[in-house]
Amino acid sequence: MMGNTFSFKKWLLIVLTTLMAIVVLLAALTVFIGYKVTNPTIRLLHTNPNNVGLDYEDVSFSNIVDNISLSGWWIPSDQQSLFQNEKAVIFSHGYGYNRTEMPFSSLELAAAMHEAGYHVFMFDFRNSGMSEKAPTTFGGNEKSDLLSAIRYVHDQQGIENIALVGWSMGAATSIMAGAEADEVKAVVADSPFSDLNEYAKNSFHYWTGLPKSLAAGTARAVEAIVPTFNLEDVRPIYAATQYNQEKGLFLIHSRKDGAIPYTESEAIHSHAAGSELWLPEKGGHIRSYFHYKAEYEERVLNFLDRTFKKYEPQIVEARYFT
């Protein structure tokens, strides 16, 4: 009897020890993956605006919250009208990319914007391109990066009317930053998520390669790795309520997006009065511009022109009396 009891206790100890080891290993794996997703491989810049016939200025500016050094290009327009307010567009790239390295040519879109009379500002979020290394937080700290870019364009370039164009993480960040900045009159958001906390639970496995149950835990691990990051703060769907007939929001999302379902944009659209939604049939994640280049440019420029017309100075007809 004593031998059986001893064997049972030994077996139980082995089982408990094994389970504890598995828990520790899973926790370590979750933290490790959390670290990896906040420190994606940095893509270097391999082109510049000169390659599409655009003059530009290299720009460095600091984040207004944590002083992270950020890098960008100011591409001035030479087609601004005397009778119109100057307008600028700020691009915000997706997770793991930089100002030019995306699944399409952001410089070609910049050239189209420039030709239409817009100044263009392209910059790298933290931990991307030529900007300073710091953990990527899927829109959390990136929001202050973008607010800093808006301040640069407003304060240093003197532009009062600004539009934001963003993709994926950059789209979600643009919605949030645009809701806070009075200078922003319009936002084009291509393939955003609506709520990072919910998205992490349902779809973070796409980015981590982990089973869904473990992938959700990596987002929480990021909160431990980056003390200034809070999942609850990254909710474009709540920021969307600030968009109305005056501050425009145009959502673009491919129905074939395997990374962020197009239903995320539909949810944001339902919370933004007067917002517009285009759901291309093909394209994949942030690939709509690649597949629908001419239509994409036409739709975006049409939306921006209609929105900015509300802010153009009114020309009063002179009347002469005898």
Automatic annotation (TrEMBL):
<keyword id="KW-0812">Transmembrane</keyword>
<dbReference type="InterPro" id="IPR000073">
    <property type="entry name" value="AB_hydrolase_1"/>
</dbReference>
<feature type="domain" description="AB hydrolase-1">
    <location>
        <begin position="88"/>
        <end position="208"/>
    </location>
</feature>
<protein>
    <recommendedName>
        <fullName>AB hydrolase-1 domain-containing protein</fullName>
    </recommendedName>
</protein>
<dbReference type="InterPro" id="IPR052920">
    <property type="entry name" value="DNA-binding_regulatory"/>
</dbReference>
<dbReference type="InterPro" id="IPR029058">
    <property type="entry name" value="AB_hydrolase_fold"/>
</dbReference>
<keyword id="KW-0472">Membrane</keyword>
<feature type="transmembrane region" description="Helical">
    <location>
        <begin position="12"/>
        <end position="35"/>
    </location>
</feature>
<dbReference type="Pfam" id="PF00561">
    <property type="entry name" value="Abhydrolase_1"/>
</dbReference>
<keyword id="KW-1133">Transmembrane helix</keyword>
